[in-house]
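Q: Could you fold this chain for me?
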Amino acid sequence: MARFDATVKDLVEIAPIDWPVLAGLSPPGATLIDADISTVTAVADKVIRLRGNPDSLFHMEVQAGPDASVPRRAHLYNTLFHDRHELEVLSVVVLLRREANLKSLTGVYERRFPGKEPYLRFHYQVIRVWELSPEQLLAGGLGTLPLAPISNVTEADLPGVIERMKQRLSVRQVREQAPRLWTATYVLMGLKYQQPLINQLLKGVEVMEESSTYQYIVAKGRAEGKTEGAREEAKKFLLVLGEDRFGPPNKAARAELEKIQDLGRLEELGRRLLQVESWQELLEAERTKPRSSRGRRKKT
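A: Sure. Below is the predicted structure, expressed as structure tokens.
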């Protein structure tokens, strides 16, 4: 999910103030600050300093997938940023899709001993993008505009949403930022829609071709597709030769084989196939092989 997190971080850099506004705030100004916390190894997603009387901090965590540690981490970062900057901190969790919406994300993080009242109660805000009004996003800031296609819209609504985005991003004032915004739109739409539909809807967006990030993503996607195909062929190869040699694998052996995603490891199993006498022996040798050498290819 790193691609989606990085995409939102880029949007925050384009227009930091748009994200506090999405959370219902109206600061007179906003600037990004360093999100690194020297006392711990982790780094929060984004932290924005809100101008006001007094100033405060807006800390945002972005989630595209389920993670039960989010409330705990939000509390940790909130406390550390308050200690470092001596400013009040509002923590907001942005959920990009329904799969990230765990029951534990209630907006309140509590710690207590059994049978006792909570000794800690921390409040944070949760924004569920699929519940947001597309009208709010289409009329809002540029930094949150790419969320519109994955907001509370159906596939039937999408052409109209994309058309309104084209109108807004075609004006001269935002021409420089348009490639980054369309690239972000392309990436985020992948959370909700199939690739052929995305390609069809964004086909007429010429400025995307100017984006080096978009070109990299497309090239990477093609490479990943080729790797996935090679993986599937390697698994078929193992199953065909393995069945000829050992007979059909049982459910456990088949499931273990399906879990292997590293192409190098699959190729190594293929080489070892003629040296063992059963599926169990083949997979047992794989399980006991040192992790550092798994999938390592010989240099030629």
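A (continued): DSSP finds eleven helices and seven strands in the chain.
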